[in-house]
Amino acid sequence: xxxxxxxxxxRRRARLSQAALAQHVGLSANGLSRxxxxxxxxxxxxxxxxxxxxxxxxxxLRHVDLPHVSRYRKARAAASGPRVPAxxxxxxxxxxTGA
Length: 99
What we know:
Residues 7-61 form the HTH cro/C1-type domain. The protein is an all-alpha fold. The protein contains six helices and no strands.
């Protein structure tokens, strides 16, 4: 389970303090801190509130290593080269591959 790491990662990415996120979901800052440190696990309802407040799903918080996925996507995007907007390609012409 990745709940603790994901909560902290998503909260920081959203530039929210523990107090702000905790207040938004109806939790104490100390309670959120315990979740982020892995000392406690939120129940199903609280997990859902936290997930949706942070733009994720409860399953993503539980099962996906979001910081790792984010680093992987950034590295892959950087390796693939610059993106060419669809409007920059003449109709009927193939899109460049970025190689």
